[in-house]
Amino acid sequence: MFKMFKLYIINTWVTKLEKFYNKQGAIAFDRIRYTILLARAKSMLRRSTIIIIVISLFWAVLASRQIFQRETPRYLKTVRNSIGMQLKVVEENTQPTLRIVLPDRPTSDRTLEIIFPEHVTIRPRGNTNANQIYMWRPGRFGEPPQWRQYERILEYEKNFPDKVHMLARATLEEDGVRFHFRLRNQSKLTYDLIWAPIDPRLTSEFHDVRLERTYVHHADGFDLLASETPERLTMPLNQWLPARYLASYTWPIPSQKIERREGIMYYNKSRVVDAPFIATLSQDGRWVVASFTRNTGNVWSNPELTCQHVDPQVALAPGEEAILETKLLVVGASLDDVFKMAMNQRDSLKW
Fold first, then answer.
1. Which of 60, 88, 158, 297 is the most buried (most CB within 10 A)?
2. What is the pLDDT of residue 337?
3. Longest dimension (CA), the chain
């Protein structure tokens, strides 16, 4: 009897011990499983967080890059077309100057530089004299404009005295550069004249100091701009220069064919041109630089700089704005082909 009771006690405690250890083992197992699952969850969270951060950074960089490209000025302000021609801001000058670099030329090549613009001139209604509210100067002084660059466009905006606002935009195209000025009269005065001409200056193989390769177009075809002054070819340069040679388009031909004003000799061609177009051939004849616009009073050149002018003008009432555009063709083609290109594009220019 005692033995049976003893066995009962032993079995009871053994059962309790087994239940206790089983319970503890389950708890331990649950803790281990919980620890493993927690570690896995933390690892997945860390990986997800890293992925989210990487994706967020990617989109942030992409967005900032787009904003940077479209709105923020770049240090090297240069655009390029498919044939390798470049248009760049000339950093040596504070006031806006652009350089067209021909294919396979270094960016330091100064063959074609454009003052953008040379000046801004207005004439309020009732005044006989015009007023230059801006005049370009070379070198570095003052604050440069805040250039914007995107796609093949370089542009800036500027406020001038007499409440004139200007957006200046240059677009590099496959055959040259389109220059665009959007001018707004923010004053209470009417301006009978507002004028912002570009000044393309040709050097190196395009330099034509005696106007031997600079042409205009008449009703009967091409003619040298200075064909009526053959003595220019042999006279000493200090007698020929400084000079301006002009040919009327819509303006009347001046009665004086030759006149000296402020130390400069002005030569007026005796017949009108039939298109607002002027072109200069390179010395080897492989390239042509030509300027044209939709409408203008005359075309002219300063032979010392071999500049080309086809300067459109406009009148603006208070609150009005207008767009003036000029195209500079830079192509390897014949003079006839370049003229056809200009006439085909002429109506696309705003004025």
1. 88
2. 98
3. 153
